Amino acid sequence: MPMMINGREAPVPGDARVSLLDLLREHLELYGTKKGCNQGACGACTVLVDGERVLSCLALAVQYEGREVTTIEGLASGGGLHPLQQAFIDDDGFQCGYCTPGQICSAVGMVDELRRGVPSYVTDDLAATNVAFSHDEVRERMSGNLCRCGAYNGIVEAITDVYAEQQA
Amino acid sequence: MIELTYTRASDAEDAVHRAVDGQGRYLGGGTNLVDLMRETVEKPSELVDVTGLSRAIAPTAEGGLMIGAAARNTAVAEHEVVRSSYPMLARAIVAGASAQIRNMATVGGNLLQRTRCTYFYDTDGSRCNKRAPGDGCDALEGFNRMHAILGASPACVATHPSDMCVALAALDAIVHVRSVSGERTIDLCDLHTLPGDRPDIETVLEPGELITAVELPAPNPAAFSTYRKVRDRSSYAFALVSVAAALELDNSAIVAARVALGGVAPKPWRARRVEAALRGQPATEATFRRAADAELADARPLAGNAFKVELARRTLTAVLWQLTEEARS
Fold it and tell me: Would the ipTM clear 0.90, i.e. be above it?
């Protein structure tokens, strides 16, 4: 069974050691997903699998047979930008841009987790199934995505601009 | 090139038969094993993917909870019963790693993750008895502020990295395992071994034995519990010290306490001396400090981590105060 990457079928590699990240970049020429640390410490390689954010550098591609992978290239529908991509531009959510695809994919997955009521380390009331969107929640939940340029304020602002109202 | 085969187990029975020759490694979310393979710390010739095994989280007849070993960390932390009845566990899980990693990582894999000691990872330049028994330990005289103060040995001073396991130790969790010769259970507190002169051996599991589930005993509704983690940055870092604690009070007297420490030992450290020193005593600062001292009397800090003794004492005392105030309000 192939996997689906941004709506297109892609063959699963024969070599079990190929990571999902290397499959995307080296086999499929999808260079949007970035290789930062390649050891699960920076979040630059974040993609969505069946809507959940994961680190493609720590994922062996062979494990993702039959799954739906969405990378930054497949996030927007039609020819335009995803609202979050536009917000990152409007709010200076990046400087060099290397961490940006991972940040944006991560934020899309993060908002889904927030809507499901997944608790975080800063969630006070664990029993509440409705976690309020807040500055602290966004910062904690995005802590797996590092930005060496330090564009964190713009990143939080972009996410807040797109999702805070929807959440409320 | 290292040859590597990959197969996917359909269920636990299938998995243990696939790994029966002892050469294979079980693969969960890959968040630790894939990294270790890339660094050539681990060189398995065969991967048996066990992510297709049970990930169910279901009540037990004894009033507890059975968590399938393939359950993802996020699924456990967001489970309604875990949040309401085992808040210490939910808090410990969300204190660990990042959201992306918690979405991938399995419960079984979390129990078996290996130390993040940098000398263990440094295959080119460092000696490590865990990696190559008998070679020596470069952490002993090296950069060791992250290392153990309790339970270590001259052969190895590495810490166990899990947050989840610290809560599971305090909760008296039971690990269900399976092999071709049958099933058995192991108390979580007995799963991991201390390094002694064999730091390469980290658990009591036999070769090929597979973790299939983690069972939580019925919760204590009278107890107040939490998990607190102290680390170098406010998120996404391994613990310097962490405390999982549950406290049951009757007025101002401590009826029972369960305490485990993380970041300070080669295994999730159940602090039974703390528990014994708390039982039946008044919930006061003096009691808490005496209890902490009882456990930390055996601490053997290294050149770089003496601060952990005081940090553990303060964190433990602060957590016990927090729970006392919650119980009284």
Answer: yes
